[in-house]
Amino acid sequence: MPYPASNVASVEHVDVIIVGAGLSGIGGACHLKTECPKKSFVILEAREAMGGTWDLFRYPGVRSDSDMYTLGYRFRPWRDARAIADGPAILKYIRETAADYGVDNAIRYHHRVRRASWSSHDARWTVEAEIGPEKTVVQLTCNFLYLCTGYYDYESGYTPEWPGIARFRGTIVHPQKWPEDLDYAGKRIVVIGSGATAITLVPAMAQRAAHVTMVQRSPSYVVTRPAEDKIANLLRRVLPVRTAYMLTRWKNVLSATFFYNLARTRPELFKWMVARGVRHQLGDKYDSKHFTPPYNPWDQRLCLVPDADLFRAIREGRVSVVTDHIEAFTEDGLLLKSGQRLDADIIVTATGLVLKLMSGMQLLVDGAPVDLPKTLVYKGMMFSDVPNLALAVGYTNASWTLKCDLTAEYFCRLLNHMDHHGYAVCTPRVNDQDFSVEPVIDFNSGYVLRALDTLPRQGSKTPWRLHQNYMKDLSMMRYGRLEDGAVEFSHKKAQNT
Ligand SMILES: Cc1cc2nc3c(=O)[nH]c(=O)nc-3n(C[C@H](O)[C@H](O)[C@H](O)COP(=O)(O)OP(=O)(O)OC[C@H]3O[C@@H](n4cnc5c(N)ncnc54)[C@H](O)[C@@H]3O)c2cc1C
User: Fold this and answer.
1) Which is deepest, 45, 103, 128, 472, by most CB within 10 Å?
2) 36 within 8 A of 28, measured Cβ to Cβ
């Protein structure tokens, strides 16, 4: 139901509305400002600050798990000596970029977008956002909607329903809602989980805790890498900063693509290489049970340990790993299926995110709700039968920004192309049935499987295929044809007749 007109404070029109002021939204705005300088735009942001993920997550040690030369924007060199950066450094980078490109003034904070409705008659979107605690509704209209809303639910993370959880007398914390004043010095900590967050938190907390135990149902593939990239730092010393950045970016894209392909085509060799690395780090503390996942490499995201910090903490006895199932919470900690008990003062549930594309925003096209699972993704950034809308979603097997930069570039190319030809509307249409339909993500991680029914799908061939490959996307998105037969372009007048 639309909001009652009496609750609607104002209506304003801009060329583009960007939803979300995280890494992608700020990047998208910078592209827009430089590549489509005449377009008016605003960024609607639900929270009180920009930065998205890098402002929300405050747990100890929060950092990137891919290198900043590819997680950084193509147009703005990452100048820090560390390739694997902490959350505050990434947030600073986003804020400085927004200020330098003058897009920070375009952000409207405390604007939570709830619904966007497309009218073919007017060839525009009406966007409804709630502002402030009173949830006053503002309406804005735009010709194009660019959704940079991330991929997970900001309200809360995922916590399984374990028996007896209310009995536990200590403190339970989810990394997505880290209490600012949590004092864990000298405490016994249990971290539940084996993903990137657990792998980050465990060595960081072990610096001050009495002991940290990581409890995992099943292990992840864990690789170590230096936090600083010596080649990148050398290149920056001898070359102009932009040239050095581009070379390092390409070096990292190519090596990540090589190792990803190796993992997918020679999984046994890759498993052996990863296991050898962990064995080398842990020596006589190595137990294959804790580092041998039951799935193939890249069926789930690989975990990165910078400067072997996790392994060092295990070697020094500050961290132990337990692979078991949780039977129940007890008053003092956890009871495991094996019968083992783990006493804890604090239990951290690093059990993941709730995947939620478009943050649950409702989309309507000419009054009919868009049923996302019935749509196909076009070039990984638009949906079939949804006009003038793009979504920034990054790679699952490489840095997020590599794809979001390309998406923003393509979005700007599209706008300029439409202006040049006087088009008002562009809509991806499935006019070729000669392909099969598949899930949009081929991961088997819990958070993906839990949400698969809510996601759009992909086709088995271009442009409906999600390549998860920067080189393929680069040629398609930077140089490929815009009028590729799968997008219907029309003039506004033609729409109305
Ligand atoms: C802890 C953590 C570490 C990560 N590390 C890496 C990494 O090393 N490498 C990598 O490639 N990826 C990583 N990721 C994935 C990461 O989310 C992306 O890299 C990237 O930061 C996402 O940026 P984004 O702007 O697309 O989304 P987000 O950072 O999620 O920002 C989305 C923004 O949109 C706003 N928003 C959402 N819905 C609405 C709405 N309805 N109305 C108004 N505003 C809205 C949110 O408030 C938020 O500010 C990590 C994720 C997490 C959680």
Assistant:
1) 45
2) no
